[in-house]
Amino acid sequence: MNAIGYAACAVAVIGALLAITRRNAIHALLSLIAMLLAVAVIFFVLGAPFISVLQVAIYAGAIMVLFVFVVMMLNLGPPQEREEQRWLGGGIWAVPAVLAAAFLALGYYAVTAVKGAPPSAGMVGPKQVGLALYRDYVLVVELASLLLVAGLVGAFHIAPPTREEPPVEPSHAPAPHTQAEEATHVSGR
Q1: Which CB contacts under 8 angstroms, 24+ apart, belong to 64-71?
Q2: C-alpha–C-alpha distance, residues 182 and 9, integer Å
Q3: Which of 71, 117, 169, 187 counts the most CB atoms within 10 A of its CB?
Q4: Could you give the CA distance from residue 72 to residue 87 in angstroms, rounded to a whole number?
Q5: pLDDT tens-digit profile of 76-99?
């Protein structure tokens, strides 16, 4: 099982790197989905199959579909891509690189500092997750849902306006007459 876990970790890291380096937003989202699926495998290997299923259903499924729809709704074209390329010059990567290095060093320390066998954890079932989410962390769950809705509304407001069709001019054909008008016209009144 360790080989599967390490392979999933490698796929997660590669997927994350591809997600932040792709210029096409859809390609970046597909790399992010691969990374999230690899994280689900890691959860499964660590003995949390329910969390693994939640990872696939919620993050790799629902949230990523939402991201794809938002990207399609924004419909960014070549002018926005050129502007993003200008923003992502060489110097902009310095701070994220330092933060990533610090995170990797912290992760290495956390893994190597544990002496002996890791603590054994029992299986995490749906009941424990539900009780923890909706009893202990209900405010955090509600704030996360509010944040997602606010992000979708914000994306809708910054989306470029849709092109409107020119109004159709009314035809110059005579309007149809009603039976009463036809009777008046025929009788001459």
Answers
A1: 64/29, 64/32, 64/33, 64/36, 66/148, 66/152, 67/29, 67/32, 68/26, 68/29, 70/151, 70/152, 70/155, 71/25, 71/26, 71/29
A2: 82
A3: 71
A4: 22
A5: 666 666 666 666 666 767 777 787
The domain over range 1-77 is classified in CATH as 1.10.10.10: no
Question: DSSP string of 7-30?
Answer: HHHHHHHHHHHHHHH-SSHHHHHH
**Alpha helices per DSSP H over 22-118:** 25-45, 49-54, 64-74, 78-87, 94-113
Q: Backbone phi, then psi, for 114, in 5-degree steps?
A: -75, 120
Task: Using DSSP, state whether 150 is helix, strand or coil.
Answer: helix
Q: How far is Cα 39 from Cα 33, in angstroms, rounded to an integer?
A: 10
Euclidean distance between CA atoms 181 and 28, whole angstroms: 66
- CA 144-148-149 angle, to 5 degrees, is 120
Tell me, what DSSP letter sits at residue 137? S
- pLDDT 10s digits, 103-139: 778 777 766 776 666 656 667 778 887 888 888 888 8
* Domain ranges (residues) in the chain: 1-77, 125-158
